[in-house]
Design brief:
Elements: E1 24-29, H1 37-50, E2 55-60, H2 62-65, H3 72-88, E3 96-100, H4 106-116, H5 120-124, H6 127-134, H7 143-158, E4 163-165, H8 171-188, E5 196-198, H9 233-241, H10 260-273, H11 277-284, H12 289-317, H13 320-347
Parallel strand pairs: 1-2, 2-3, 4-5
Bound molecules: adenosine-5'-tetraphosphate.
Adenosine-5'-tetraphosphate binds near residues 43, 204, 205, 216 and 219.
Length: about 350
């Protein structure tokens, strides 16, 4: 398949980034377990809403997943499940190139080049590394977890991405990507588009139901921590009824850490219903926490129902997803190769004799 949207000129012709296409989006999720409503509200929902206006690249970032030890069989299952969930969330292959990161080798190669250009101090500042490594035994913290942001920068920059729709927690990584693009451009000449993060207004940071002061996370272990996208209505009701609240009575949005549980339930409700904050507070006025939990549970069940039924239909179709991933990887590789060829020239790698154009 030929990419109809030339993004960069060959390094031997001109250094200018040429754009003749709609703005480009890149984002991804790690196949590290069951996707939850935080991944849906912070990422997938927004992706589906935006797709028709952009040229979209949505990746299942399995190379990021192995920065933390993974069971190979589970990784394979999660990768296919995520692909089906991307589609079930409404991503349409007509607008979106949905592919697996490890199928496009350019990610690893640009990742290495950017790693070599990243000052250690920049990585030392990354909150996600500090948070994740703090929960691990020292000997199991890999160098890959530390350099995760430079691989993420490669993912984004390879596609000359304009916008990166992510949850609030990834903002710092997108800023580092932008800094790296600027650094590379000023060292070697205009090469990369500078991307911007796109954070949803509602649902940008969903907190754990049992730990409302820490973000909902796939790798957290508590059974009542996260509502996963494939949880049944019974399980959703059960988890919601056990959600941590507080000893106050008012049901209002609040930034008070003591009221984080109620605030989180209201945020989830708002993100699923798209109702304005005042209308939500008025709706719950005079009601108790039991009512709040029941109402939020029903909103989540209703919000996930279409996604769940599409997911189970797709799973029945079996091999179609692998075929789609193969086709998408071809398109992604073609676009990525344009950037990577330019980068190789810029940093001084010589071209393979078979790739040198006859003069
Ligand atoms: N709690 C959240 N609220 C809103 N958005 C969230 N995202 C993740 N958690 C929340 C968004 O989901 C996208 C994919 O995240 P990821 O899996 O690549 O990485 P993560 O942020 O590390 O997600 P988890 O769930 O915490 O996974 P583990 O436990 O495996 O590390 C991103 O856009 C992210 O912002």
């Amino acid at each position: 398949m030929t990419d109809q949207s030339p993004t960069v000129a060959s390094a031997t012709d001109t250094p200018t980034v040429i754009k003749q296409r709609p703005p480009r989006i890149f984002s991804g999720i790690q196949p590290t377990g069951q996707l939850h409503i935080g991944n849906y509200l912070g990422a997938l929902k927004q992706w589906a809403q935006l797709q028709s206006k952009y040229d979209n690249f949505y990746c299942i970032v399995d190379m990021h997943a192995i920065t933390i030890p993974q069971d190979p069989q589970e990784l394979r299952e999660s990768t296919r499940r995520n692909a089906a969930l991307y589609l079930a969330s409404g991503l349409d292959p007509k607008y979106c190139t949905i592919f697996v990161q490890s199928h496009v080798a350019a990610h690893a190669e640009l990742g290495w080049i950017l790693t070599c250009l990243t000052p250690l101090g920049w990585l030392n500042r990354m909150h996600q590394f500090k948070d994740k490594s703090a929960k691990m035994q020292a000997e199991s913290i890999s160098a890959g977890l530390y350099t995760y942001p430079t691989l993420m920068a490669a993912d984004i920059l390879l596609y000359q991405t304009d916008l990166v729709p992510v949850g609030d927690d990834q903002k710092q990584h997108v800023e580092l990507t932008r800094d790296l693009a600027q650094r590379f451009n000023s060292m070697f000449g205009e090469t990369f588009t500078l991307p911007d993060a796109m954070i949803p207004v509602s649902g940008a940071r969903i907190m754990g139901l049992d730990t409302p002061n820490a973000k909902m996370s796939k790798s957290a272990i508590g059974e009542g921590h996260a509502i996963t996208l494939l949880d049944s209505p019974e399980v959703i009701r059960k988890k919601m009824m056990r959600a941590t609240t507080d000893s106050h009575r008012e049901i209002k949005f609040s930034t008070d850490p003591e009221r984080a549980g109620v605030n989180n339930l209201l945020t989830i409700y708002q993100a699923f219903t798209d109702e304005p904050g005042e209308a939500i507070e008025a709706h719950f006025e005079g009601k108790g926490y039991g009512d709040l939990k029941k109402t939020v549970a029903e909103a989540v069940i209703e919000g996930l129902a279409p996604l769940q039924s599409r997911y189970y239909e797709l799973v029945k179709e079996g091999g179609a997803i692998d075929e789609l991933l193969a086709k998408s990887a071809e398109r992604a590789a073609e676009v990525a190769a344009q950037t990577l060829d330019l980068v190789r020239d810029r940093v001084g790698f010589i071209r393979l004799a078979s790739k040198v154009k006859p003069s």
